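User: Can you predict the 3D structure of Amidohydrolase? Sequence below.
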Amino acid sequence: MDKILIKNAAAIVCCNEKDDVYQNADMLIQGEKILEIGHGIHCDDAKVIDAADKFVYPGLVNTHHHFFQTFVRNLVTIDYPNMKVVEWLDHIYRIFQKIDSDVIYYSSLTAMADLVKHGCTTAFDHQYCYTVNTKKEPVDRQMEAAAQIGIRYHAGRGTNTLPRTEGSTMPDDMLETTDEFIQDTRRLIDTYHDTGAFSMRQIVIAPCQPVNCYEDTFIRSVELARETGVRLHTHLGEGENENMQQRWGMRTVDWCKRIGFMNENTWFAHCWELTDEEYKILGEYGCGISHCPSPAILGGFPILPMKKLKEYGVLLSLGCDGSATNDGSSLLDSIRTAYMMQCYHSKERGGGVPAYEILKQATINGAKTLGRNDIGSLEAGKAADLFMIDAGALELVGAVHDPRNIIGRVGLTGNVHMTMINGRVVYENGRLVTVDERQLAKEGEKICDKVLRGPCDAFHNLF
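Assistant: Sure. Here are the predicted structure tokens for Amidohydrolase:
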């Protein structure tokens, strides 16, 4: 296998258990794997990458997203900050029901490109948009897109099964039966789920949210997860508790606990509505939370108590969330936003969270959340997933003495210098290496115009 020697990096920030930072160091890579990190490494048959003035970090791991929403960004007609979550869902789903298989493909390419350009090497996407037009193809199209971009992809096979007439926010065109969902999830697991070392694709069982599904959908998801060893994910604690109490006489955490949807292989998105006692329950069951700071700010939601969550044993990772509530797919931006939120939070609660700790949430914690021990940190034997930033730029003078905290504290949210995934450079010198992104952008805009901007009333008044 080909070897790559990253030479003379100003800093290599490992995000490992020892929090190692190597100054003026080298990294030797063979195939998809890191062989060695240290000083004065020589290898005559390796391709050399000059990393002078560069800081090297583990590739970021995104643990919650909705790629299909990329084509509904920047809409003044859907004013999320001035709506309650349920009201927003009611409006936005009227657009989502128009989505077809081509929209899934091109919106996924768009989100993945954005992620990679900002240092993300592994992405989980919660794909719950199944319409009459998409049929059962969304995850298949996303796998196709991920292979083109070269990103490591975990697909959350979601669903919505409860009709509006029974209390959900879902249009009929976006509903499936539980049998359909389970059958197709089995197909995807058989087709794509690879548990081998350095695998580039896996499947997660991820019914969308309790308020939009029958109870049986979640119960059978748990059964399938136990049978196959596949992980579980859903939305939790984002404004649904009033509805759940009316329907079931209990809050969502208790409901998930009762049906067995809470264990060490489960993580939840958001969770800003939970109580201290509910956070403790998540910790006791070994569950994780994907913190998505941008939609929390846009919605004016409570700030997660990170220090308490760590104390309670909750595994905290970082997500972008869908572009309908973020308008972008940069996990670097999420690091900065999460850090600033905790700084604000600490004024009332006493003591903030270091920016480096949030970087670890976006790297090693993300890997643990997805059940991966082969990614998330820079160490010998782990995957060569990394990104570099140019620390020699004039605007960073005076800040480069602390490479661990610089991303969050200084706010390095722009495109990175280079991104490598599984030992393969996929982005460098301002361009994606694996695709003709200009051509794909033109094709994607045409699809957006054809499928969404034409027939959809929410777009019609804008264009």
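The chain has 16 helices and 17 strands. The CA atoms of residues 21 and 266 lie 31 Å apart.
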